[in-house]
């Protein structure tokens, strides 16, 4: 789970902005990139309405918490944060406290009882509700969807290089362990033109890398009229002049079509990186997870991707200790990871989320055993990543520089591998060819190609 973020604003100006009204807002965010993008949209909307951002919640007029419930730890963190704001509300009754995100959907009455000091609860992406605490928003636009998602990458503190744009909300799957469909609703795709306009605006303001977001991003367009899908959207966004890199997250294996893979392979800006969660390597576990595919199907999608893009990097997600997972079934997952040799694996130990189907089943794998399985896969993956990275020694990669820490520049390759290098020149935000001189399982270290001259 990522640490909570406070969202800086993108510097792009908007002609619709109202004069500064002297009020300040503070946003605290936890959870996935969809939440971060929603927070950026809220920040941009309030900024357009004349509010100013502050990093200090104690001096804010409006404090917004954007919550996550995918794991119990995230929900506990939000509850702790809400309790800590009780004193602020007592000292300054005029401050508006707002809670949004997955914790809110279908839970308004229960939350109002539990956290009476909160002024407004609103469902994820229901931005119009903000008018209740910021009436100035009503003068901006009839359609808040038309306002931008100015996303600044809070994780790196960099405000102008990378942007995340939601293209589809909700999820039509019902994986037995997942709370998302109950909190985010059915899939709703944004119109293609609205996404492209937003990309153009961001690129004009200096953004070089866009990540298109959705819980099932490759289901994009299924609910739109006409023959629109992710492949069409990738083609349309790739055509925006000045965009260097295009990525998308998170895909569902069932919708990873040949057409999307071919579009990835053929388009200049689309990075050769696929994030395709498998969750388990045993067909019976996959069936009980309700993932709607088999291990062979997932392996086939990975093979197909590598045939079209031999240098493609692959990331996946795995859950260990799902109810009823036997040792033999766990070993199937281990075997799958051995075969697939992914560049990155996000590992999680199963924990039941109330309200989901699997939460009704006996959580029969003891915590100690879940930890053992987790550690075994962690060790396996560390070995695989050590080998993969070692094979890159001496190769040169294009690195989009995101920031500088401890005297070293940091960025990512097109394959999304972290690469650090030293250079006395200012190369922030630039694409630098870097030759790999050292490797570790988690990142690469290198030096700029001798011929490189910063722009
Ligand atoms: S595809 Fe499954 S795991 Fe992913 S958001 Fe939808 S229900 Fe949850």
Average pLDDT score: 90
What is the overall silhouette? globular
Overall structural class, as computed from helix and strand content, comes to alpha/beta
Query: Which second-level CATH architecture of the largest domain applies?
Result: 3-Layer(aba) Sandwich
The hetero compounds bound to this protein are: iron/sulfur cluster
CATH C-level class of the largest domain is Alpha Beta
- CATH homology-level superfamily of the largest domain: Methylthiotransferase, N-terminal domain
Portion in helices:
25-40%
Number of domains: 4
The radius of gyration computed from the alpha-carbon positions, rounded to a whole number of angstroms, is: 22 Å
Biggest β-sheet description: 6 strands, mixed
What is the end-to-end distance? 36 Å
Describe this protein's structure.
The protein is an alpha/beta fold and 455 residues long. Helix content is 30%, strand content 20%. The chain has 12 helices and 19 strands. The strands form 5 sheets. Strands 1, 2, 3, 4, 5 and 6 form a 6-stranded mixed sheet that branches. Helix 8 runs parallel beside helix 10. The protein is globular, with a radius of gyration of 22 Å. About 4% of the residues have low confidence. It binds iron/sulfur cluster. The site of iron/sulfur cluster has 10 residues, from helix 5.
């Amino acid at each position: 789970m990522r640490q909570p973020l406070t969202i800086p604003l993108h510097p792009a100006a908007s002609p619709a902005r109202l004069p500064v009204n002297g009020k300040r807002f503070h946003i605290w965010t936890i959870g996935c990139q969809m939440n971060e993008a929603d927070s950026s949209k809220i920040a941009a909307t309030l900024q357009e309405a004349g509010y100013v951002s502050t990093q200090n919640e104690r001096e804010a007029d409006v404090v917004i918490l954007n919550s996550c419930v995918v794991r119990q730890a995230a929900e506990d963190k939000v509850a702790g944060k809400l309790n800590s704001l009780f004193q602020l509300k007592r000292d300054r009754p005029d401050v508006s406290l707002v809670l949004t995100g997955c914790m809110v959907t279908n839970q308004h009455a229960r939350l109002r009882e539990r956290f009476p000091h909160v002024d407004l609860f609103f469902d994820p992406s229901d931005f119009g509700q903000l008018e209740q605490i910021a009436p100035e928003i009503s003068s901006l636009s009839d359609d808040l969807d038309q306002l931008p998602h100015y996303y600044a990458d809070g994780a790196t503190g960099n405000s102008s290089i990378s942007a995340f744009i939601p293209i589809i909300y909700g999820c039509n799957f019902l994986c037995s362990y997942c709370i998302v469909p109950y909190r985010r609703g059915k899939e709703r795709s944004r119109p293609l033109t609205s996404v492209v306009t937003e990309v153009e605006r961001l690129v004009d303001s200096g953004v070089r890398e866009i990540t298109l977001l959705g819980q099932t991003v490759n289901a994009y367009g299924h609910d739109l009229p006409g023959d629109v899908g992710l492949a069409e959207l990738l083609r349309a966004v790739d055509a925006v002049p000045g965009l260097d890199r295009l990525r998308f997250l998170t895909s569902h294996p069932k919708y990873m079509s040949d057409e999307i893979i071919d579009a990835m392979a053929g388009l200049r800006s689309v990075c050769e990186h696929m994030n395709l969660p498998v969750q388990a390597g045993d067909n019976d576990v996959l069936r009980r997870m309700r993932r709607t595919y088999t291990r062979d199907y997932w392996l086939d999608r990975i093979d197909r991707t590598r045939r079209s893009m031999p240098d493609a990097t692959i990331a996946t997600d795995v859950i260990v200790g799902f109810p009823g997972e036997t040792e033999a079934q766990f070993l199937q997952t281990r075997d799958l990871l051995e075969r697939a040799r992914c560049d990155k694996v996000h590992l999680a130990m199963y924990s039941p989320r109330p309200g989901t189907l699997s939460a009704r089943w006996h959580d029969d794998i003891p915590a100690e055993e879940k930890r053992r399985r987790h550690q075994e896969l962690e060790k396996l993956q560390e070995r695989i990543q050590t080998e993969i990275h070692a094979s890159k020694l001496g190769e040169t990669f294009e690195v989009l520089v995101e920031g500088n820490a401890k005297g070293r520049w940091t960025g990512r390759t097109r394959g999304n591998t972290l690469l650090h290098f030293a250079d006395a020149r200012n190369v922030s935000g630039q694409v630098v060819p870097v030759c790999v001189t050292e490797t570790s399982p988690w990142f690469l270290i290198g030096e700029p190609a001798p011929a490189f001259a910063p722009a």
